[in-house]
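Q: I have 277 residues here and want to know how they pack in 3D. Can you give me a structure?
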Amino acid sequence: MDTVLTPGLYIVATPIGNLGDLSPRASQILLNADLVAVEDSRVTAGLFRHLGAKGKMLPYHDHNADAVRPGLVARMATEAIALVSDAGTPLISDPGFKLVRDAREAGHAVTTIPGPCAAIAALTLAGLPTDRFLFLGFLPSKQQARAESIAEIASVRATLVLYESGPRLSACLTALAEGLGDREAAVAREISKKFEECVTGSLTQLAERYAEAPPKGEIVVVVAPPGAPAPASEEDADAALAEALTRLPASKAAGEVAKKLGLDRKALYARAMEMKG
């Protein structure tokens, strides 16, 4: 049944594999939108065939976004414009955030139709902590740039989620092991499709597994957060106190070291007085 949509921008999540995951609300929006901005019209045409309709599509991607965006934003004043990516939730490692920003600045309504997202789906499969996670998109392909990116997030106390291609997977896992330590991880691929799998193990084990047989399909890597730091030793505490006492009175030195090393302040103060005596 045709439904008249309120003018504005509709961000529509589409299946990452199984077409049955397209929600009834998403179907309604796509069928009744005045125009659907698509990453690749050939991909979205398949979705419309599944719906038994021929959608009104306009390509919108990294290569033409600056030229196409002003016209799309102008049309939102009187038309319902839907935005989709090739698969999953638009804007998640896909073009689109500038369109949302400009639509809001122009005063147009922006509505999201939530649904599939490969990063979130992989988190549910991996069996790793989900209370805090950091999505990294794709790491750089060049070795040095990739190592630098990994070094930036090495101390982040959260599960890491990133996308990768089959041919680069083993090298990526090896770089992660070198930069983060041999953490527990998971490789999820072809989520919701016939050959879906989620393989778990250490980063080194997974790198070895895929070194000779790069997998096909859409791939998500999930990496466990760093383990708890080892408690400071007495030698560490004494060295930190000795340095702090060159700058601070005993009470403040004890407080500084307690905060830095996570140790008891009273015990450190007593030790500082011994060292001063």
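Q: Anything worth noting?
A: Residues 182 and 203 are 5 Å apart (CA to CA). The first helix runs from residue 24 to 32.
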